[in-house]
Structure formats: structure tokens, C-alpha cells
Design brief:
Number of domains: 2
CATH architecture of the largest domain: 3-Layer(aba) Sandwich
CATH topology of the largest domain: Rossmann fold
Bound molecules: ligand GMT
CATH superfamily of the largest domain: Glycogen Phosphorylase B
Strand content: 15-25%
Shape: globular
Strand order of the largest sheet: 3-2-1-4-5-6-7
CATH class of the largest domain: Alpha Beta
Oligomer: single chain
Radius of gyration: 21 Å
């Protein structure tokens, strides 16, 4: 198949899923064309049969907000025609699904099938805002196929937008051959061999509740020798830095900034924390699990479809600092327990291996093309 993929190219789960999906499809002899304003960050080296098409944006003084979604539609239509795409698969509904709908109208309805993958905040936080609600509902209904990254997200989409059409749940995935413990526990300068390492990776938005991680870590470090690695950057950074200082944790919290390769960091970690206000799937948690790192994650959303409470980690109310602290100390203070949970996490991650999940996308593409 010839498949177009549009996603946000920057740091964020939906862009990671879209890029890894494209690379895996190309390995299976499909031809993949990324269409976005920038080359996706995980598309950092040459891959056979993977192409990138940049969306050109016109600056004009009248435009306070340059209309990216329109330029994207035009570029999509051009690539559908020039590359003879079979499918255009867009990740994150806003604005990609609406742009794809317009592109389909430009090239003619019979010339392309549009598949939209819903990722999370495009439904729970952004798409349901009154300024976007109608266009989100419309573009979901008008897509030829829709996938959701968890059952939670499918149900939330149906309830929030009153969607009646079929939507396929296809979970996110990880390449467990790449994301694995390599035994090379190379310490960062600031980390000592007997430190328990807690890690969080995100784009530091309020939904991630990083303040709760700091409070839990404060309790952890009263019980065990520990360091906290915060990986990523975003709007909450200043607030988090001052909370860390206020709690006297400056020498124990390490701000790593954005990192392209997180595997070495997961390899020195003992616990991953993701106590978000809502998490539709929690891809970063799955990547940690694949590296034998147990997870303490939120009970709000789809993370409980990934982490088995008490086995591969703990699912907690993200407001319940006491329970999360207790769970974290239970993992870290007992090495035998931690290793056992880490192995269980790896075993669980294998259920979401890219080998199994990519085939589900390919089957779904075929179904949509056949008009089932
Ligand atoms: O919200 C984010 O952290 C980014 C966002 C995205 O679309 O880039 O992540 C969402 O999609 C990921 C990939 O499917 C999921 O693993 C995340 O759980 C989801 N985030 C939320 O639901 C908050």
C-alpha cells in the first residue's frame, strides 16, 4: 500500500506512535509518505521507502495566526495525487482530520480513504472545547476509518461526542527488541550506584500532574536513598523547579531537558511515574515497562489497560499522594520485589509488541479499502 501519514512532528506520544508506525510499515514493504510542517523527531535517519513532505507556510501580515490547516490540506491533496496514495492516516484529530477531509474533497471522494487515530487530549481536553467540538465530531464522523488507542478513549469519544459509528481499538505499541534492559547500568555523574532512580518523561503540561510526582518523591526520599530524573520540557517547568527548591530537593532532582534517546535513562531507572489527570494510554509508561521498569500510574483513563495493578506496577488515584508514596516505597525498598515487578512489566509490555500491533493496522487499512 501507499500510505500518507500526518502527525505532530514534535515531542509527544501521538507523533512517536505515527512515526514508529510509518517506519514499521515501510519495513513490511509498504511505501510511507509523512506530511507535516517538520520532519518528525523520531525519523532521524534514512529508512527505505519512507519519504517526508514539508508543508509550506505563507507568512502574510494579515494573518495573525497563519492558517496551517489549509496549507496542510493543499499539501495532502498534492501528495495524494502525485504519489497515488491509497490511504491517508492522520494522528490526533485537531486539525489533521479536518484537513484530511478537505484534501479528500479536493482530490475527489473516490481517490483516497482517510483514517483518523484518536490519541487522547484531542478528545479529552482540546477536541471537546466548545471552539473545536463541532469540527472534531464532524471529522470523526466523516473519516473512512477511526482508531482509538484504548477502550477508555473509544468509550469517552462515544460519550462526549455522541458518536455512533464503528471505531477500532488498536493499542499503542513498543519494539521490545529495542526497548530492553541492556545490563549496561552506566551512571550519570549525579547518580550513585546505591541510588534508587525514579523517572518521569513528558512534555510538562498541567495534565501530567508533575507536582504530584515531586510530592511523592519528597516522601520517597525520606525512606530510601533516591534520585528523580525529570525528562522533557514544557509549560509547567518553572512551577516545578520552584516546587523542587521549596521542598529542599535540589540535590536529588535532576532536570534532563528533552532527550532523543531515552533507553539509556530507562536503563538506570527503578520506577516510572505517570500520575496524570487523565492518560488515554501512556506510551511512555509502556516503553519503561519494556525496559523492566515498574510503573505507578493514574487510575483516570486507559493506563489501567496497560499496567496490571500490584503485578507490573500500581494504578492509583493521582490525587492520593499517600497511596502513591506507599506504593513507591514498597517497590524501591525491596530489591527482590522490584526485580519481580520489573520482569512482570517486561512480560506485560510484550503483549503490546510492535510485531503484533502493526498487523492490526495493516488489517484495518485493508478493511477500510475494501469498504467493509
Ligand atoms: O498528551 C500528551 O502527552 C501527548 C499526546 C499526544 O497526542 O501527543 O499523548 C496522548 O497520546 C499518546 C499516544 O497515543 C498516549 O500514549 C497518551 O496517553 C496521550 N495523552 C493523554 O491522554 C494525556
Amino acid at each position: 500500500m501507499k500510505i500518507g501519514i500526518t502527525c505532530y512532528p514534535t515531542y509527544g506520544g501521538s507523533g512517536v506512535v505515527a512515526t514508529e508506525l510509518g517506519i514499521e510499515l515501510a519495513k513490511r514493504d509498504h511505501e510511507v509518505h509523512f506530511i507535516s510542517y517538520e520532519q518528525p523527531f523520531r525519523l532521524d535517519k534514512f529508512h527505505k521507502s519512507v519519504y517526508f513532505h514539508e508543508v509550506e507556510m505563507l507568512e502574510y501580515p494579515l494573518f495573525k495566526y497563519p492558517p496551517y490547516s489549509l496549507s496542510l490540506s493543499v499539501r495532502m491533496a498534492q501528495i495524494i495525487k502525485s504519489e497515488k496514495l491509497d490511504i491517508l492516516h492522520v494522528h490526533y484529530a485537531i486539525p489533521h482530520a479536518a484537513s484530511a477531509y478537505l484534501a479528500k474533497k479536493i482530490v475527489g471522494d473516490d481517490n483516497i480513504k482517510i483514517i483518523t487515530t484518536l490519541h487522547g487530549t484531542d478528545i479529552t481536553l482540546v477536541g471537546n472545547h466548545h471552539s473545536f467540538f463541532d469540527i472534531t465530531k464532524f471529522s470523526i464522523e466523516k473519516s473512512d476509518g477511526v482508531t482509538c488507542v484504548s477502550n477508555f478513549l473509544k468509550k469517552t469519544t462515544e460519550e462526549t461526542f455522541g458518536i455512533k459509528r464503528g471505531m477500532e481499538v488498536i493499542y499503542n505499541f513498543v519494539d521490545t527488541e529495542v526497548y530492553k534492559k541492556n545490563g549496561n547500568r552506566k551512571y550519570l555523574d549525579m547518580i550513585e550506584p546505591d541510588d534508587n532512580v525514579v523517572i518521569h518523561i513528558s512534555n510538562f503540561r498541567p495534565v501530567k500532574r508533575i507536582g504530584s510526582i515531586i510530592k511523592v518523591f519528597c516522601n520517597i526520599s525520606k525512606k530510601v536513598k533516591a534520585k528523580l530524573l525529570l525528562v522533557g520540557d514544557g509549560p509547567e517547568m518553572c512551577k516545578i523547579r520552584s516546587l523542587v527548591s521549596k521542598l529542599g530537593l535540589d540535590d536529588r532532582v535532576i532536570f534532563m531537558g528533552r532527550q532523543d534517546d531515552i533507553i539509556p535513562l530507562l536503563n538506570i531507572s527503578d520506577l516510572y511515574m505517570l500520575p496524570s489527570k487523565s492518560e488515554s494510554f501512556g506510551l511512555s509508561a509502556l516503553e519503561a515497562m519494556s525496559c523492566e521498569v515498574p510503573v505507578i500510574g493514574t487510575s483516570f483513563g486507559g493506563l489501567k489497560e496497560v499496567v496490571e495493578h500490584g503485578i507490573s506496577g500500581f494504578i492509583c488515584d493521582p490525587d492520593d499522594i499517600k497511596s502513591m508514596s506507599k506504593a513507591a516505597v514498597a517497590v524501591l525498598a525491596n530489591k527482590k520485589n522490584r526485580v519481580k515487578m520489573g520482569l512482570a512489566a517486561r512480560k506485560r509490555a510484550k503483549k503490546f509488541d510492535s510485531k503484533n500491533i502493526i498487523d492490526k493496522y495493516v488489517d484495518y487499512y485493508k478493511e477500510v479499502l475494501e469498504g467493509k
